[in-house]
Amino acid sequence: MKDWRAAPDEVAPTVLVLGGFLTSPPFYEPLRARLQRAGAAAVVVAPVWLPDWLLAAPRGVGPIATRAGRALLRASEAARAGSRGAPVLIVGHSAGGIVARLLTSPEPFDGRRFAASERIGAIVSLGTPHQVVGDDGDGFAGRELGRRATYFADRVVPGAAFAPRVGYVSVASSRVVGRRRGVGPAGIAWLSYSSLLGDAADPAGTPGDGVVPTSCALLPGSRQVVLDDVGHGIFGRLPWYGSEGVIDRWWPEAVEAWRAALRSRRGTPD
User: For the domain that residue 220 is a member of, what is the CATH number?
Assistant: First the structure.
C-alpha cells in the first residue's frame, strides 16, 4: 500500500469524534454515519460517557482527555488501513473541541502529557467555547471545567498553534440572539452567553447557537465557518452542527484544511 505522502489529495480522512459536555457516544451515531456517507474513510467516536462528565466535576477534565487520547490511538490504527497512515481529522463538538486542543499540548494537563499534534491532521470544532473572557464564578460544573481547560489551552497551545502542519476549522452559529431582557430562548441564551463573555456580552443582542456565543466559538487563526440557522445541541428544536444537510456546509472546508496540512507536512505548497 502506498504511503499517504505519495498522493495526499487522493486520501480520505479517518475521523475521530470527541463529544461535548454531558453527552455519550450513542448520541453521535447519526453523525458518524453521515460523515462516512460524506467520504470519511472511517469514523471513531471517543468512548466518553455521561458518567465520565459527571465525575469530571470532582476529578477534573484530565481523565476525559486520557480517554480521548486512547481513542486517538485507535483512530490512528484505523487510519493505517483506511487513510494510508495519514494523520487523523478530529471533529470536536462543544467541549470536545477544547479536549482536542489539549491533546496537542506539549505541557502536562492535570498531570497528563499527550503532545499528539503529529497524529492529528486537522481539528474541526463545532460550537466550542474557545474564547472565554467571563469569570462569574457561578459554580456550574460544565462552565467551570471548560473555563479551566480553555485557559490552559490558550496559554499553552493558543489559536492555531500547530498550523500549517495541523489544520484548524471552527464552526459557529449566529442563529439564537441572546438578550438581557429577552424571554424564552433569547433569555436562556443570554444567561449562557453572559457567563462566557462577561461584560463583553451585548445586552441588546449577542448572537450564538443558544449555548455558545458566535465570537467565543471562532478560534483565532483558524478557518472560520458561521452558520445562521443551527443550534448548539443534538436534542434542541433547531438543526445542530451534525444534522443532515448541515454537515455539507462545513465538511468540505474541514477536508481541505486537513489536506492542506498533509501537503504542508509533505513539503508541497498549496
Answer: 3.40.50.1820
